[in-house]
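Continuing the batch. This is chain 6 of the set; chains 1 through 5 are on the previous pages. Same settings as before, nothing changed between runs. Recording input and output for traceability.
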Amino acid sequence: MKEKIISKATELFLKLGFKSVTMDDIAGEMCISKKTIYKYFCNKEILIEEGTVIIHEKIHQVISTIITKKYNAIEENFEIRKMFKEMFQSSDTSPIYQLKRHYPEIHGKVMSREIEECNTVFKQNIAKGIEQGLYRKEIEIENYVKFYYTLIFGIKEGIVSEKEGQELELKILEYHTRAMATSEGIIELEKQLQNYNQ
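Output for chain 6:
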């Protein structure tokens, strides 16, 4: 039952917002009593925190699956971008913005966890792109990783609309790729942008 509650709550949080969903809403959606929820979670903050762990795990499982599919480095980034778009398409307001505004302590934990995990993914992607001749050889990987996640996470935190956030993330991905790309990489980037927007 605990897993079912987390699953339903997480779905509602992403769709309607962390702040606006109440324990009554979750109980109503599941046709259970609020008392049942409180048996497993003494307050909403604990439920939100556990929900963010589930979201994090789900995101990184999908990213791992994408990485095993042997896409080239640029294509891989666009596939990850599509996954985020699909996962958060039902949200009107940005989940990251809501967390930062209403639950800053949980937001801090989420961000440090994401940055640590994404650091590894970004590094591997840049190394792969250099090896494939899509990114320039002289790139300082550590610095480019910092640039990218500073842009991604910095912008996401201040964006209220999920749709606007996704549009900006695509522009950041293009900006980041152009900054690293060889002429061959630019050709691949243009191809991916064309496919993404169809």
